[in-house]
């Protein structure tokens, strides 16, 4: 009994001592957390926060790269310059077509390839490794390679299409206003769909196999199982992929610039190309920042709408 009382007394002393030292440990952990995250926070402030604030500041000011006397508060003049530009509406239309077709094609092709790779077929591991190759190729390399392959003079694709009898003579796919934007879009789909494939494949592997087996026993066909079981399980991943790629594709500059530079006759010019022309060709940084701010606000609104829609669907 005496030994038990001594042990209880020691436990009470240890508990009081731990309670006294707990605030000190928590403060130390907070200091360590601040110390470890400080470099990342500083990097984000320098590389992201400062440029964004600079864009917002300069969108309401007159800024010219070659004429330092052009300066001062502009108010909404830069926005009026953009909206009254004859190239704005065509560029906006091209951006919407480029984004919608790219994201839709990437998702459909990515889902189809993910469903195929989810099956137990011979050589599945090799195909899973090869499918990612287009996505890891640098955009400049992919764009230049496809530009060479599509040239009417020596492009291998034109040669194959003529040999197969699909076309009568080589076509300047990137040199015609009617085909330039759609050609670049198809090449972008080819390069980007593997990201969908890998992401959707991971989501498909998390779908319980027992659900498919039980549904098959109950007489549900392949399409019914896909609609009722597979799609609900990959909905979150699908919506996230689509949201991310809508933003990535809409603000994409380098792929179109490498292949067509927005031509011919501005047939493939999108809003990012227009921002580049304002800043680096017309040297009107104020107008470029105004258009960039408009795009940034639109992208932020998409994120907020998707976030609050997801919260509304979430069960209480």
UniProtKB/TrEMBL annotation:
<dbReference type="GO" id="GO:0005886">
    <property type="term" value="C:plasma membrane"/>
</dbReference>
<dbReference type="Pfam" id="PF00528">
    <property type="entry name" value="BPD_transp_1"/>
</dbReference>
<feature type="transmembrane region" description="Helical">
    <location>
        <begin position="129"/>
        <end position="151"/>
    </location>
</feature>
<keyword id="KW-0812">Transmembrane</keyword>
<keyword id="KW-0813">Transport</keyword>
<feature type="transmembrane region" description="Helical">
    <location>
        <begin position="234"/>
        <end position="258"/>
    </location>
</feature>
<keyword id="KW-0472">Membrane</keyword>
<keyword id="KW-1133">Transmembrane helix</keyword>
<feature type="transmembrane region" description="Helical">
    <location>
        <begin position="171"/>
        <end position="190"/>
    </location>
</feature>
<feature type="domain" description="ABC transmembrane type-1">
    <location>
        <begin position="92"/>
        <end position="304"/>
    </location>
</feature>
<dbReference type="GO" id="GO:0055085">
    <property type="term" value="P:transmembrane transport"/>
</dbReference>
<feature type="transmembrane region" description="Helical">
    <location>
        <begin position="285"/>
        <end position="310"/>
    </location>
</feature>
<feature type="transmembrane region" description="Helical">
    <location>
        <begin position="33"/>
        <end position="53"/>
    </location>
</feature>
<dbReference type="InterPro" id="IPR000515">
    <property type="entry name" value="MetI-like"/>
</dbReference>
<keyword id="KW-1003">Cell membrane</keyword>
<dbReference type="InterPro" id="IPR035906">
    <property type="entry name" value="MetI-like_sf"/>
</dbReference>
<comment type="similarity">
    <text>Belongs to the binding-protein-dependent transport system permease family.</text>
</comment>
<feature type="transmembrane region" description="Helical">
    <location>
        <begin position="96"/>
        <end position="117"/>
    </location>
</feature>
<protein>
    <submittedName>
        <fullName>Sugar ABC transporter permease</fullName>
    </submittedName>
</protein>
